[in-house]
Amino acid sequence: MTQQSESQAMAHEATLFVMQMAGDSMINAGIHNGDLLIVDRSLAPVPGDVVAAVMDDEIAIKRLVSRAGITILHAENPRYPDYMPSNGASSGHTSASTSHGSFMARVTLRSGVG
Protein backbone atom coordinates (compact mmCIF):
# COMPACT_ATOMS: atom_id res chain seq x y z
CA MET A 1 0.00 0.00 0.00
CA THR A 2 1.40 3.39 -0.93
CA GLN A 3 1.59 6.23 1.57
CA GLN A 4 -1.17 8.08 -0.29
CA SER A 5 -3.55 5.10 -0.36
CA GLU A 6 -2.71 4.33 3.27
CA SER A 7 -3.61 7.87 4.33
CA GLN A 8 -6.82 7.70 2.28
CA ALA A 9 -7.75 4.45 4.00
CA MET A 10 -7.00 5.91 7.42
CA ALA A 11 -9.22 8.91 6.69
CA HIS A 12 -12.14 6.48 6.43
CA GLU A 13 -10.97 4.04 9.11
CA ALA A 14 -13.96 4.61 11.41
CA THR A 15 -16.42 3.97 8.60
CA LEU A 16 -14.77 0.93 7.00
CA PHE A 17 -15.55 -2.64 7.86
CA VAL A 18 -14.95 -6.04 6.31
CA MET A 19 -17.62 -8.64 5.92
CA GLN A 20 -17.74 -12.06 4.35
CA MET A 21 -20.32 -12.79 1.68
CA ALA A 22 -22.72 -15.57 2.58
CA GLY A 23 -24.86 -17.06 -0.16
CA ASP A 24 -25.18 -16.76 -3.90
CA SER A 25 -27.50 -13.76 -4.40
CA MET A 26 -24.73 -11.71 -6.08
CA ILE A 27 -23.08 -14.46 -8.12
CA ASN A 28 -23.74 -12.74 -11.48
CA ALA A 29 -21.85 -9.67 -10.21
CA GLY A 30 -18.81 -11.85 -9.53
CA ILE A 31 -19.38 -11.88 -5.76
CA HIS A 32 -19.25 -15.44 -4.48
CA ASN A 33 -20.00 -17.18 -1.21
CA GLY A 34 -17.02 -16.62 1.10
CA ASP A 35 -15.68 -13.50 -0.68
CA LEU A 36 -14.43 -10.74 1.60
CA LEU A 37 -16.04 -7.34 1.06
CA ILE A 38 -14.82 -3.94 2.23
CA VAL A 39 -17.74 -1.67 3.02
CA ASP A 40 -17.38 2.10 3.43
CA ARG A 41 -20.22 3.84 5.24
CA SER A 42 -18.74 7.27 4.43
CA LEU A 43 -19.49 6.92 0.70
CA ALA A 44 -23.05 7.69 -0.33
CA PRO A 45 -24.19 4.92 -2.65
CA VAL A 46 -25.60 5.82 -6.04
CA PRO A 47 -27.67 3.69 -8.42
CA GLY A 48 -25.53 0.95 -9.90
CA ASP A 49 -23.37 0.53 -6.78
CA VAL A 50 -23.16 -2.73 -4.87
CA VAL A 51 -24.27 -1.96 -1.32
CA ALA A 52 -24.53 -3.52 2.12
CA ALA A 53 -28.05 -2.92 3.41
CA VAL A 54 -30.02 -4.08 6.43
CA MET A 55 -32.93 -6.26 5.32
CA ASP A 56 -35.06 -8.07 7.88
CA ASP A 57 -32.47 -7.44 10.63
CA GLU A 58 -29.61 -8.91 8.57
CA ILE A 59 -26.97 -7.27 6.40
CA ALA A 60 -27.50 -8.13 2.75
CA ILE A 61 -25.34 -7.38 -0.28
CA LYS A 62 -27.38 -6.10 -3.23
CA ARG A 63 -27.14 -3.77 -6.22
CA LEU A 64 -28.76 -0.37 -5.68
CA VAL A 65 -31.20 0.40 -8.49
CA SER A 66 -33.58 3.30 -9.03
CA ARG A 67 -36.72 2.88 -11.10
CA ALA A 68 -39.04 5.87 -11.46
CA GLY A 69 -37.41 7.41 -8.39
CA ILE A 70 -38.00 4.32 -6.22
CA THR A 71 -35.05 2.66 -4.47
CA ILE A 72 -34.73 -1.04 -5.24
CA LEU A 73 -32.21 -3.51 -3.84
CA HIS A 74 -31.52 -5.97 -6.65
CA ALA A 75 -29.93 -9.40 -6.32
CA GLU A 76 -27.58 -10.38 -9.14
CA ASN A 77 -29.09 -13.86 -9.28
CA PRO A 78 -32.50 -14.38 -10.93
CA ARG A 79 -33.51 -16.83 -8.19
CA TYR A 80 -33.90 -13.91 -5.75
CA PRO A 81 -36.57 -11.19 -5.90
CA ASP A 82 -35.98 -7.44 -5.80
CA TYR A 83 -36.51 -5.74 -2.45
CA MET A 84 -38.02 -2.28 -2.03
CA PRO A 85 -37.24 -0.61 1.31
CA SER A 86 -40.44 0.28 3.14
CA ASN A 87 -39.44 3.92 3.60
CA GLY A 88 -39.49 4.55 -0.17
CA ALA A 89 -36.26 6.54 0.04
CA SER A 90 -34.93 8.23 -3.05
CA SER A 91 -31.81 6.43 -4.15
CA GLY A 92 -29.85 9.57 -4.95
CA HIS A 93 -28.63 10.30 -1.43
CA THR A 94 -29.27 7.13 0.54
CA SER A 95 -26.27 6.87 2.82
CA ALA A 96 -27.15 6.24 6.42
CA SER A 97 -30.54 5.42 7.84
CA THR A 98 -34.09 4.54 7.00
CA SER A 99 -37.12 4.88 9.20
CA HIS A 100 -36.33 1.50 10.74
CA GLY A 101 -32.76 2.36 11.75
CA SER A 102 -31.18 0.26 9.01
CA PHE A 103 -28.28 1.47 6.88
CA MET A 104 -26.96 1.30 3.40
CA ALA A 105 -23.25 1.58 2.59
CA ARG A 106 -21.18 1.16 -0.54
CA VAL A 107 -19.08 -1.95 -1.11
CA THR A 108 -15.76 -0.58 -2.31
CA LEU A 109 -13.59 -3.68 -2.80
CA ARG A 110 -14.08 -7.38 -2.99
CA SER A 111 -11.59 -10.19 -2.81
CA GLY A 112 -12.11 -13.90 -3.32
CA VAL A 113 -10.79 -16.06 -0.54
CA GLY A 114 -10.68 -19.34 -2.42
Give a brief outline of the structure.
This protein has 114 residues and is mainly β.
Strand content: 25-35%
CATH superfamily: Umud Fragment, subunit A
What is the overall silhouette? Answer: globular
Category from helices, strands and their pairing: mainly beta
CATH topology: Umud Fragment, subunit A
Q: In the CATH hierarchy, what is the class?
A: Mainly Beta
Strand order within the widest beta sheet: 1-2-6-3-4-5
Number of E-type strands: 6
Q: Kindly report how far apart the N and C termini lie.
A: 22 Å
Uncertain regions spanning at least 5 consecutive residues: 88-102
**CATH architecture, please?**
Ribbon
Query: Largest sheet, described in full?
Result: 6 strands, antiparallel
- Overall pLDDT confidence: 75
The helix/strand order is: HEEEEEE
Please tell me about this protein's structure.
There is one protein chain. With 114 residues, the chain is mainly beta. The chain has a single domain (3-111), classed as Umud Fragment, subunit A (Ribbon). It has 1 helix and 6 strands, in the order αββββββ. The protein has one helix at 3-11; strands at 16-20, 36-40, 50-55, 58-67, 70-74, 104-111. It has a 6-stranded antiparallel β-sheet, with no helix packed on it. A hairpin with a 2-residue loop joins strand 4 (58-67) and strand 5.
